[in-house]
């Protein structure tokens, strides 16, 4: 009942915001004159669709470590979490007239060696799909500038992978105040997942599903010519099967059991961001996130990025992120067979994690069809206290037209 | 089940941090910076959020490896990396 009230309230906020923006446009006589001075009226007919930017990014992850949920190891664990992921992405941003912008974005994951070889020659999700898997998503977001300070947005997308299908749809709105020194924005997203259920021995056991409803409110404020801050509060309500169904839990009886999780979860997160321009043509970006949910997980993440411009076309940066979280009460690495809730997932364990990274970013003016060539190369190292290490390399290349 | 999120200490911590952020914003909220003085803010280095494709891959990295993901307006989990 409580979840339903939260959802209904979130959707009502969206409807109210949309109608408020519409009323503002309808009631304000000045807007009619603004429309008379639109780009189309002044400059003549605009092309129906203009591609503003095309960007591609390729990221590689090379992961090492162990976790008690993995079956790739001794029965009482921990098992291997060895994993490699190759993740290409492509994004096209196009404008349709002077008010509408479309963003079409396609990320793909190609995964290999995920907990492989745990049950040789059995065609289950652990030894088969998880050994070599592909996943793809296509997302389409459209924004509509209803007046110079109000933007409405709508998005939808589908995600496909071997035992898993997902659909999402969202609505959002933002409005600027005080000569655009202040921006208030919010959005609501619904996500529906359908996927195969597996028993702990890898046998398929029909289909299952879950739904997630996300709402967020964001406030951005210019504090001075060199400083801007952003605060965001987000709420996520999830219902249904909240695990992947094939995670194992070592049992005191000496065998592996299935992971048993609650069928709902309410998550809260407050995020603060600050960007400060530095006098030597650099920038300092700070990020702080506090998280809590009704499973009893409380977490804190902090990140700092220092960036330095070397020329008008080139800057470099370094980052450090620290994350600490506790575990839900039902986390264990050795559970009773009679436990009604249990997980041994290393991602839900009490842990500290660290990320260090460095990057080079360039925007080079070019002649011809495109105006600017954008490129970026970054290396990150992620490591945490419960035996997980990842090397990450990412490269981006894009054109702005 | 541990419901520490609703315990007074955890709640107080959230309120305290939110208050600090609100204070920081409120302290400068009255100042209006004209658009011709925002050149530094327009520098790509100064974005409060990452470029979207970079933000996606970073968020996915953390969402699929830390149980305290989501809640900040982005999808949590999905596919092999649930929760």
Major beta sheet of chain B, specifics?
A: none
The H/E string of chain A reads HHHEEEEHEEEEEEEEEEEEEEE
Total strand segments of chain B: 0
Instruction: Count interface residues per chain for the largest interface.
Output: A-B, 114 and 61 residues
> How would the global form of chain B be characterised?
flat
The whole-number mean of residue pLDDT values of chain B reads 71
Notes on the structure:
Chain A has four helices and 19 strands. Chain A is mainly beta. In chain A, the strands form two sheets. A 16-stranded antiparallel beta barrel of chain A has the order 1-3-4-5-6-7-8-9-10-13-14-15-16-17-18-19. The radius of gyration of chain A is 24 Å and the shape is globular. The model of chain A is unreliable at 15-32 and 116-130 (pLDDT under 50). Chain B is built from two helices and no strands. Chain B has helices spanning 8-29, 52-63. The longest helix of chain B is centred in the first third of the chain and has 22 residues, at 8-29. Chain B is flat, with a radius of gyration of 18 Å.
In short:
With 401 residues, chain A is mainly beta. Helices cover 11% and strands 60% of the residues of chain A.
Topology:
The complex is a heterodimer of chains A (401) and B (83).
Chain A: H1 2-27, H2 30-36, H3 39-43, E1 50-67, E2 79-80, E3 83-96, E4 100-112, H4 125-129, E5 132-147, E6 150-161, E7 164-177, E8 182-198, E9 204-224, E10 227-240, E11 248-250, E12 256-258, E13 264-278, E14 282-293, E15 298-311, E16 314-325, E17 351-365, E18 372-384, E19 388-400
Antiparallel strand pairs in A: 1-2, 1-3, 1-19, 3-4, 4-5, 5-6, 6-7, 7-8, 8-9, 9-10, 10-13, 11-12, 13-14, 14-15, 15-16, 16-17, 17-18, 18-19
Chain B: H1 8-29, H2 52-63
């Amino acid at each position: 009942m409580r979840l339903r009230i939260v959802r209904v309230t979130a959707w009502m906020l969206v409807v109210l915001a949309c109608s408020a923006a519409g009323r503002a446009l309808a009631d304000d006589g000045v807007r009619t004159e603004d429309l008379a001075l639109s780009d189309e009226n002044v400059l003549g007919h605009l092309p129906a669709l203009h591609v503003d930017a095309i960007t591609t990014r390729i990221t590689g992850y090379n992961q090492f470590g162990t976790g008690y949920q993995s079956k790739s190891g001794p029965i009482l664990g921990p098992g291997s979490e060895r994993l490699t992921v190759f993740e290409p992405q492509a994004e096209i941003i196009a404008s349709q007239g002077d008010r509408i912008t479309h963003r079409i974005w396609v990320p793909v994951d190609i995964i290999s060696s995920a907990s492989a070889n745990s049950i040789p020659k059995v065609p289950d999700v652990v030894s088969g799909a998880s050994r070599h898997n592909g996943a793809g998503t296509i997302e389409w977001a459209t924004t509509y500038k209803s007046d110079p300070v109000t933007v409405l947005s709508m998005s939808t997308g589908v995600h496909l992978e071997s035992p898993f299908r997902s659909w999402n749809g969202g609505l959002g709105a933002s409005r600027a105040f005080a000569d655009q020194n202040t921006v208030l924005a919010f959005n609501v997203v619904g996500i529906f997942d359908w996927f195969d259920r597996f028993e702990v021995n890898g046998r398929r056991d029909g289909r299952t599903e879950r739904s997630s409803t996300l709402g967020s409110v964001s406030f951005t404020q210019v504090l001075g010519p060199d400083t801007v801050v952003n605060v965001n509060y987000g709420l996520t309500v999830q219902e249904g099967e909240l695990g992947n169904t094939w995670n194992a839990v070592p049992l005191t009886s000496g065998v592996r059991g299935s992971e048993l999780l609650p069928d709902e979860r309410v998550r809260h997160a407050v995020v603060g961001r600050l960007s400060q321009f530095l006098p030597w043509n650099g920038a300092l970006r700070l990020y702080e996130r506090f998280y809590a949910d009704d499973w009893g997980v409380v977490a804190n993440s902090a990140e700092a990025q220092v960036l330095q411009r070397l020329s008008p076309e080139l800057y470099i940066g370094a980052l450090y992120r620290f994350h600490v979280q506790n575990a839900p009460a039902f986390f264990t690495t050795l559970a009773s067979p009679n436990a009604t809730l249990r997980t041994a997932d290393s991602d839900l364990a009490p842990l500290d994690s660290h990320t260090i990274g460095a990057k080079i970013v360039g925007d080079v003016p070019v002649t011809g069809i495109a105006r600017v060539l954008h490129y970026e190369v970054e290396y990150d190292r992620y490591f945490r206290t419960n035996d997980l290490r990842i090397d990450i390399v990412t490269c981006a290349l894009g054109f702005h037209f | 089940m541990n419901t520490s999120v609703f315990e007074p200490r955890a709640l107080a911590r959230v309120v305290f941090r939110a208050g600090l952020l609100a204070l920081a914003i409120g302290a400068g909220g009255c100042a209006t910076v004209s658009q011709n003085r925002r050149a530094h803010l327009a520098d790509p280095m100064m974005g409060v959020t990452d470029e979207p494709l970079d933000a996606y891959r970073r968020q996915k990295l953390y969402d699929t490896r830390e149980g305290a993901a989501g809640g900040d307006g982005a999808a949590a989990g999905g596919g092999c990396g649930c929760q």
